[in-house]
Amino acid sequence: MDTVTFYFSFRSPYAWLAFHRIHAALAGLPVELERVPVFPPPNFPNDPAAVPAKLRYLMEDVGRIAAAYGLTLRWPERGDTNWMRPHAAYVFATRRGCGDAFALQTFAARFQRGADVGDNAVLADVARRCDLDPAAVVRAADDADMHAEVVRGMQRAVGQELFGVPTFIYRGQKFWGNDRIEWLVRTIQSDLGQSVPDPRAEQLARPSA
Question: What are phi and psi of 138, to 5 degrees?
């Protein structure tokens, strides 16, 4: 069975949107989804928050997509936090078999309740919503072993020349962005010998003259 590696970050609203879609998108396809949490280092050159016009566009774009998905959106007052902590807590939750639930609740805390997901009280609340021990989750956020696993994932991302999230890698091919999930699925289906729609038949793909 092939693996689709899904690099995501709790910092990214597009990763939030993609996390809601990817399971249904891959349903019925013979692939295994590997989730790898990452976060940008300081002074990351591709950081949209460093470009005011890009950030304004991002907020508008995410808002319309979230509304189309039926998701409420509340931007966090604090844009950044100690990103190692929620990602390390995710590793802990994954080891206990509830990584997806923890990720979705963490994303909800950040983008639907506007909370600081690096805060102990917020992590404890996420844990309770996932039936995890809140104290254990808070400890895991600062646990060296959990941190080491996050670092290993980030080193993999660097080795694969990742420049943003969400990114999906399938058979060495990269698909960057929530809006590339359809192309990921299309590629998998094509490799399986399944028929896929011809993009040239789409009205918007036709030349205007």
Answer: -60, -40
Count CA atoms closer than 13 A to 73's CA, side-chain side: 18
State which residues form the domain around 187.
Answer: 2-205
CATH of residue 170: 3.40.30.10
Polymer length of the chain: 209
Tens digit of pLDDT for each residue in 3-41? Answer: 999 999 999 999 999 999 999 999 999 999 999 999 988
Number of domains in the chain: 1
Kindly write down the DSSP assignment for every residue of 104-135, as one continuous string.
HHHHHHHHTS---TTSHHHHHHHHHHTT--HH
Query: Where would I find the H helices in the chain?
Result: 13-26, 52-69, 84-95, 99-111, 120-129, 134-140, 144-159, 181-191
Full-model pTM: 0.94
Query: Taking the C-alpha atoms of 3, 9, 85 and 60 in order, what is their torsion angle to the nearest 10 degrees?
Result: -160
